[in-house]
């Protein structure tokens, strides 16, 4: 799980033709954050990357069922092979073992690099269940191999996930977030002169 940032090459230009005169403009930055076209461009770019990735090299020896099962990307659910979940730049890769996970991540990093996307290793985490091997999951960026940090829980799409699917940690997290938001406006609510409004705002 992790996020991606966009790399803008320094030699990109675009050409416009106002009043029949061509003007070449250097591109030094991407779309401004908050621009409504930004997520559409990013999703279209990432979609093309995933369409090109089949992780064929993970399928093992076709004549050896055990070997093929060991490196098969993703997991089988209702006859379908689930390899990843994706929402904008929040991506979850699903693998049957750490070796397959490392190979999947590495291929994704290389394919994304070709279109100017770079993985944020600080936001990328590994979660595994009790049946998985304890081997590390590694990724190589700029000729430097990094072991991806392993965690027992992770917030994905606003929901705290854990191996036991327990809701109590998520409820505690939301309570803390609610109190933190309330404390940000506490000075304002304390200054209210109407007792009824103060009582309602403190509920």
UniProtKB/TrEMBL annotation:
Lineage, top-rank taxon, reads Eukaryota
User: Where is each Reverse transcriptase domain found?
Assistant: 1-161
Instruction: Write down the Gene3D superfamilies for this protein, in alphabetical order.
Output: 3.30.70.270
One Pfam family of this protein, by short name?
RVT_1
What InterPro entries does the record tag this protein with?
DNA/RNA_pol_sf, Rev_trsase/Diguanyl_cyclase, RT_dom
Q: Write the protein's name.
A: Reverse transcriptase domain-containing protein
Organism encoding this protein: Caenorhabditis japonica
Q: Lineage from the top down?
A: Eukaryota, Metazoa, Ecdysozoa, Nematoda, Chromadorea
């Amino acid at each position: 799980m992790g996020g991606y940032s966009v790399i803008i090459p320094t030699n990109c230009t675009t050409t416009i033709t106002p009043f029949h005169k061509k003007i070449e403009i250097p591109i030094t930055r991407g779309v401004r954050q908050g621009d409504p076209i930004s997520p559409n461009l990013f999703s279209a770019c990432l979609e093309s990357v995933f369409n090109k990735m089949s992780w064929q090299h993970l399928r093992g020896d076709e004549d050896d069922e055990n070997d093929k099962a060991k490196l098969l990307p993703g997991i089988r659910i209702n006859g379908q092979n689930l390899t990843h979940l994706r929402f904008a730049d929040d991506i979850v890769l699903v693998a049957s073992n750490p070796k397959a996970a490392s190979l999947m991540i590495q291929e994704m990093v290389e394919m994304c690099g070709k279109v100017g996307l770079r993985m944020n290793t600080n936001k990328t985490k590994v979660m595994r269940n009790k049946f998985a091997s304890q081997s590390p999951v590694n990724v190589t960026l700029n000729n430097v191999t990094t072991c991806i940090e392993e965690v027992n829980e992770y917030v994905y799409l606003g929901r705290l996930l854990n191996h036991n699917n327990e809701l109590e940690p998520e409820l505690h997290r939301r309570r803390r977030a609610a109190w933190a938001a309330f404390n940000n406006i506490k000075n304002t609510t304390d200054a209210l002169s109407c007792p009824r409004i103060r009582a309602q705002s403190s509920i």
